[in-house]
Design brief:
Blueprint (H helix, E strand, L loop, with lengths): L20 E11 L8 H9 L5 H13 L3 E7 L6 H11 L13 E4 L35 E6 L9 E2 L19 H4 L8 E7 L8 E7 L7 H19 L20 E7 L12 H4 L45 E4 L4 E7 L9 H4 L12 E6 L3
Parallel strand pairs: 1-2, 7-8
Antiparallel strand pairs: 1-11, 2-4, 3-4, 5-6, 6-7, 8-9, 10-11
Helix pairs in contact: 1-3
């Protein structure tokens, strides 16, 4: 695995963070077990334990070069014992990759996901029960597409809220397509993967910073999944706006954030393909959120790079071979924050870190890390 170019200027593709800022980042890892057996997660645990898993090292390099204070890692398999999260923290992030400095994330949070959890019903209408289309959230096995939050600052775990069990039908104006029987609607949850509110104790903040972490599970979206994805985004917008009176978390607590709560939405709330637009308007138009419109940190304009410039955009975070790149990962700070900077880690050829996102490499990541720096004022 190639190390960063020895003569490359870090400043061309990496922005140093101010000590007064909180850098929140998200990256879709696509770090999943390769088989689809019920014990698939253990296969990934075994593959990671060497400390030399190629994709995990690429993920760690990306994170180490950008040095976020809070990282929402999506698209990573969940295991009940939390071994995968711990391995990433101790064997990859804390271990310097190819001459980079390791990062210490003493605090992390992960929880079960609906991805791959079988419903016991024929949700996809193929006449058979079982398989990824009949799972509560798309997935070949339980926990296939999960999420982890890593933090340099303490997480108030007693006040973390998760929304795994909320039923889609309980959302006012739910866009459930016709054809689902009452019994199927009684088991179909809104969340495909995960939605969490993770309060973080940040020095200089009188109250917690609420990291609203989210991800979808669908890889081959259908009309049902596209409608579900838009409803999920609408719920997130209502949650940060304090208007989600209808929403109950997994402990039975109702409602969303309170007036004055400071929040940032981070994760992958858009589908990889199949939606009419990769612009999640329900989130971008929220009066409680701001879109910093992060672009690539680079000295090589996207329009000057190989390929069709019409197939990408400066805010794109996912490389889509043969299709238009998509803005699938987002960091949207609340309007109560001053945003001092933002960016997409997307170095050009011969720039520092290019090997991590090189579309011609079989080892690079298809997804690009996106970050925003939030000024913390004492």
């Amino acid at each position: 695995m190639a190390a960063p170019a020895p003569n490359a200027d870090e400043a061309a593709s990496v922005v140093e963070k101010s000590e007064q800022d909180l850098r929140v980042a998200t990256l879709h890892a696509d770090l999943v077990a390769e088989d689809s057996s019920p014990n698939a997660a253990q296969g990934l645990v075994s593959a990671l334990q060497t400390g030399n898993h190629v994709r995990a090292r690429m993920i760690a390099r990306t994170v180490q070069m950008n040095n976020p204070d809070v990282l929402v890692l999506t698209g990573v398999t969940y295991d009940d014992a939390g071994q995968i999260a711990e391995q990433l923290r101790s064997l990859y992030f804390a271990a310097g990759q190819d001459g980079l400095e390791g990062l210490n994330y003493p605090h992390m949070f992960t929880a079960p996901t609906n991805s791959g959890q079988q419903s016991g019903a024929d949700l996809d209408g193929d006449g058979m029960i079982g398989g990824p289309g009949d799972a509560i959230g798309y997935g070949d096995y339980p926990g296939q597409y999960g999420m982890i939050v890593f933090s340099k600052h303490p997480i108030d775990e007693e006040n973390v809220r998760t929304f795994q069990d909320f039923l889609w039908r309980d959302l006012p104006g739910a866009s459930i397509p016709q054809g689902y029987a009452p019994l199927e609607q009684s088991i179909l949850r809104l969340q495909e993967s995960s939605l969490w509110d993770v309060p973080i104790e940040v020095p200089g903040e009188s109250d917690h910073v609420h990291v609203v972490a989210t991800a979808l599970a669908a890889e081959e979206p259908t009309q049902t999944q596209a409608a579900r994805a838009e409803d999920i985004r609408r719920v997130i917008a209502d949650y940060v706006d304090g208007s989600s009176w209808y929403l109950s978390d997994d402990d039975g607590q109702a409602g969303g954030l309170r007036a004055g709560d400071r929040a940032v939405v981070a994760g992958a709330p858009t589908l990889s393909a199949g939606e009419d637009s990769d612009e999640p308007r329900s989130l971008l138009d929220s009066p409680r959120l701001q879109d910093p419109q992060p672009g690539p940190v680079t000295e090589e304009p996207i329009t000057d790079r190989p390929g069709d410039p019409e197939q990408t955009h400066e805010t794109a975070t996912r490389f889509m071979p043969g299709e238009r790149d998509r803005r699938s990962s987002l960091v949207l700070p609340g309007t109560g924050f001053s945003v001092s900077g933002s960016g997409v880690f997307w170095p050009g050829e011969d720039e520092y870190g290019h090997a991590v996102v090189d579309p011609e490499s079989t080892f690079s990541l298809d997804d690009r890390l996106v970050w925003a720096d939030l000024t913390i004022e004492p």
